[in-house]
Design brief:
Layout: E1 10-13, H1 17-28, E2 34-37, H2 46-49, H3 81-94, E3 101-102, E4 105-113, E5 118-125, E6 131-136, E7 138-141, E8 148-149, E9 163-166, E10 180-184, H4 188-198, E11 204-209, E12 215-216, H5 225-233, H6 237-256, H7 263-277, H8 283-286, E13 300-301, H9 305-308, E14 314-318, E15 322-325, E16 329-332, E17 337-339, E18 342-345, E19 349-350, E20 357-359, H10 365-371, E21 389-391, H11 404-423, E22 429-432, H12 434-447, H13 476-483, E23 491-494, E24 500-501, H14 503-531
Parallel strand pairs: 1-2, 1-7, 2-3, 4-20, 7-21, 9-18, 10-11, 10-18, 11-14, 12-13
Antiparallel strand pairs: 4-5, 5-6, 8-19, 15-16, 16-17, 22-23, 23-24
Bound molecules: flavin-adenine dinucleotide (FAD) and NADP nicotinamide-adenine-dinucleotide phosphate.
InterPro entries: FAD-bind_Monooxygenase_sf, FAD/NAD-bd_sf, Flavin_mOase-like
Keywords: FAD, Flavoprotein, Membrane, Oxidoreductase, Transmembrane, Transmembrane helix
Pfam families: FMO-like (PF00743)
Length: 533
């Protein structure tokens, strides 16, 4: 077993939910020789960065949090950003990870060295600019799927003299009182920001909507002291509640994505919600043009947004008719000029690239993606040609309906099975075989044929409308089932002596039958227990 002093080492990129989940599992299994490289000044990732007014989870927080670190003290069923950020800081402190994270340190590059069976790594101090070379046996990559802000390339973008803010790069000192404010975008971010800005004294807010989205209530509620007390003191209560949330969201999957029968009634229901709560004159902008394909892009679960559109200081404009920016504001295709003091870009994230230089046995990961039609990975985790490289929230592992943290923990559970033998000195590397990688990717892409996910443009797809490389097209339970145990035959193994070996894989294959049986028994017992509650 490795220790802080020596033995095989692990480099983790990113200290959001993903990087921290990996660290928790390593620590839990007794491995301490890991370092997290985080380019920001603290942990939290998404929840450190997205400090815009109204930022909140829209998935129940008792489920959108670590299964290893339940928190009985959440104030709200969908927590606000400061509370989630604090939770991630508390978890980091509790596990003693602050000393194992190199903050303000950008992970610049990693190249696989077949001779040493390690990655040669370069990191950069974000403050001094100094670069440092390091090595690690295992690389866990968790740089976040929604991290790099996307700005539209409007002509005249650089001529605009007012203030520009991106939802994920919010300026906490910005004073919007009495200002003319534009907000571009009505995805989850735009819909959470709009009602908050609408409340600012004297503000005149115009939101630009290019295409409508389904907006459903999230029903978030304040949690009172008695419930918190019960979660803290009654054994297994919070765990049982979490389980019920898991099944609730699986039911949501079944209703929205898993069958064709409910689509019609659901669209009717969602149209009724829009018609009941939003101003009539805006319905043509708000109602999606892809009614049969509800769920093809992220459904917005928001309680305040539609009501806020009734405010006299709020108006909507067609975002598809923005022609350019000029020095004063936005110019529409019909020549109308709309002056603004501030333009907020709630225009999403770049999701189809890879954020640092990574070279494997033959090529860089960008070259691999280019050759194979876009980002792809076996189970969204391992990639042919990149030994000992594991992704958290890699290709096709995002989810539009349930907790990302469940997917993250599932992936970490899977990769730990492959990382353990390396850290124990029983193998030096694992690399997924090309045929397994390709077969998996084809299987996932075929699954999209039976789903709504490719029916409209979204950040799930390459350049918005190409191959779907972000979403997992099945249920969470299916993903968990696929990840429950490693099919060792799908991996090329290099032994501790640096030679390729089938022996190790064969030994593990024979024990994985037993593991599968144990897992199946556990699931059966869990389901029986859950249904008896
Ligand atoms: C506003 C918002 C709200 C969301 N709400 C929900 C929700 O309610 N439910 C849900 O399931 N999902 C939600 N999501 C999705 C969310 O992104 C994931 O749930 C989760 O936080 C992703 O965690 P992560 O660790 O993979 O990535 P991140 O949280 O993005 O963390 C990645 C970290 O890696 C660091 N990093 C990146 N590149 C480098 C580098 N080269 N070197 C060093 N460090 C690097 C970043 O600084 C960052 O700290 C939301 C996303 C957004 C943007
Ligand atoms: N849990 C939460 O509550 C929460 C909150 C925020 C974010 N998130 C997560 O983060 C993801 C991203 O959300 P997001 O809202 O930041 O981004 P997004 O869903 O990608 O939405 C971007 C918005 O900007 C618009 N837009 C982009 N380019 C434009 C252009 N050139 N002209 C006019 N409009 C343009 C898009 O219009 P089109 O639709 O026409 O492209 C869309 O309305 C979500 O899907 C969700 O997974 C979750």
């Amino acid at each position: 077993m490795n220790s802080k002093q020596g033995g095989p080492s692990v480099a983790i990129v990113g200290a959001g939910f993903g990087g921290l989940a990996a660290a928790i599992q390593l620590q839990k299994q007794g491995y301490t020789n890991f370092t997290i490289y985080e380019k920001g000044p603290d942990v939290g990732g998404t929840w450190r960065e997205n400090i815009y007014p109204g930022a909140t989870s829209d998935i129940s927080i008792h489920y959108y949090s670590f299964s290893t670190d339940l928190n009985p003290d959440w104030d709200r069923t969908c927590a606000y950003q400061p509370d989630i950020f604090k939770y991630l800081q508390d978890v980091t402190r509790k596990h003693g990870f602050y000393k194992q994270i190199m903050f303000n340190t950008k992970f610049v590059s990693a190249e696989w060295n077949a001779t040493t069976q390690k990655y040669d790594i370069v990191t950069q101090d974000m403050i001094s600019g100094e670069q440092t070379s390091r090595t690690a046996n295992v690389l866990i990559s968790a740089p976040g799927p929604l991290h790099i802000p996307k700005y539209p390339d409007f002509p005249g973008f650089n001529e605009y003299k007012g203030k520009i803010v991106h939802s994920s790069k919010w300026d906490k000192d910005i004073d919007l009182r009495g200002k003319r404010v534009a907000i571009i975008g009505n995805g989850s971010s735009g819909s959470q920001i709009t009602p908050r800005i609408a409340e600012v004294e004297g503000v005149q807010l115009t939101q630009f909507i290019r295409s409508g989205n389904w907006v459903l209530p999230n029903g978030a509620r304040h949690i009172n002291g008695a419930v918190k007390w019960a979660f803290r003191h009654i054994p297994l209560l919070q765990r049982a509640f979490r389980w019920s949330l898991f099944w609730f969201f699986e039911f949501v999957y079944l209703m929205i994505f898993g069958n064709n029968f409910m689509r019609g009634p659901l669209v009717k229901f969602a149209t009724t919600i829009l018609s009941m709560y939003a101003p009539k004159e805006y319905l043509p902008l708000l109602i999606p043009k892809f009614p049969a394909a509800m769920g093809c892009r992220r459904i917005i679960f928001e309680d305040l947004y539609l009501a806020s559109l009734h405010k006299p200081n709020v108006s909507l404009k067609d975002g598809g008719k923005i022609a350019a920016l000029d020095k004063d504001g936005i110019v529409m295709t019909d020549g109308e000029k709309l002056p603004f003091d501030v333009i907020i870009f709630a225009t999403g994230f770049i999701t189809d690239g890879f954020p640092y230089h990574l070279k494997g046995t033959n090529s860089t990961i960008s070259e691999f993606y280019e050759k194979t039609g876009g980002p792809n990975a076996y189970l969204g985790i391992t990639v042919t040609g990149f030994p000992n490289f594991y992704q958290v929230m890699g290709p096709n592992t995002a989810t539009g309906y349930t907790s990302v943290v469940f997917f993250i923990e599932t992936q970490v559970g899977y990769m730990m099975q492959l990382i353990k033998p390396v850290l124990d000195g029983k193998a030096s590397s694992f690399e997924v075989l090309p045929e397994a990688n390709e077969a998996y990717v084809n299987k996932v892409q075929r699954m999209f044929d039976d789903t709504v996910f490719n029916f409209c443009g979204s950040w799930y797809r390459v350049n918005g409308t190409g191959r779907n490389v972000m979403i997992f097209p099945g249920s969470a339970i299916k993903f968990w089932w696929w990840c429950r145990s490693v099919v060792w035959d799908h991996y090329k193994v290099v032994g501790p002596d640096g030679k390729q070996t089938k022996e190790f894989a064969r030994k593990l294959s024979s024990s994985s039958g037993l593991t599968a049986l144990t897992c199946a028994a556990t699931v059966f017992a869990a389901v029986a227990w859950w249904t008896s509650l």
